[in-house]
From TrEMBL:
Record protein name field: Monovalent cation/H(+) antiporter subunit G
InterPro entries membership: PhaG_MnhG_YufB
UniProt entry tagged with the keyword Iron: no
Chain ranges passing through the membrane: 15-39, 51-70, 76-94
The organism's taxonomic lineage, starting at the top: Archaea, Methanobacteriati, Methanobacteriota, Stenosarchaea group, Halobacteria
Organism domain of life: Archaea
Length: 129
């Protein structure tokens, strides 16, 4: 056993290194796209869509790179668990923020309607208290 392995360093082959680099690049690309969407899109619904999708894919790409780099056990397993929780929590959180915006009366952009409605007005909140 060499000294670098005992210090926690991981040795990867050239294929693994290329795969890790590609996954980190893809993840970073989607995170940048989500950030641009957050800064450029006009309202909360559009921004929410851009950030939730891009964050889910971007962070999953980077966590998948960690799994490839560290292997299926230990630190790599944490990458897979991160992906699992991200796919469970990001859509739920986005949905809750969207419903909160709808209940606060935030309207869509002109010409956009709620699914199943012909007008752009959001439905009335269920609880008015």
């Amino acid at each position: 056993m060499i000294a670098a392995e005992t210090a926690g360093a991981v040795t990867v082959g050239p294929i693994q290194a290329v795969l890790v680099a590609v996954l980190v690049f893809i993840g970073s690309f989607f995170l940048v796209v989500g950030t641009v969407g957050l800064l450029r899109l006009p309202n909360v619904y559009n921004r929410l869509h851009a950030t939730s999708k891009a964050t889910t894919i971007g962070v999953s790409g980077i966590a998948l790179a960690a799994w490839v780099y560290f292997g299926p056990a230990g630190e790599g397993l944490k990458g897979l668990v991160t992906i699992l929780f991200l796919f469970l929590t990001a859509p739920t959180g986005s949905h809750m923020i969207s419903r909160a915006a709808q209940r606060m009366g935030v309207e869509f952009e002109e010409g956009v309607t709620w699914p199943g409605h012909t007008d752009s007005e959001p439905e009335e909140p269920a609880d008015t208290d």
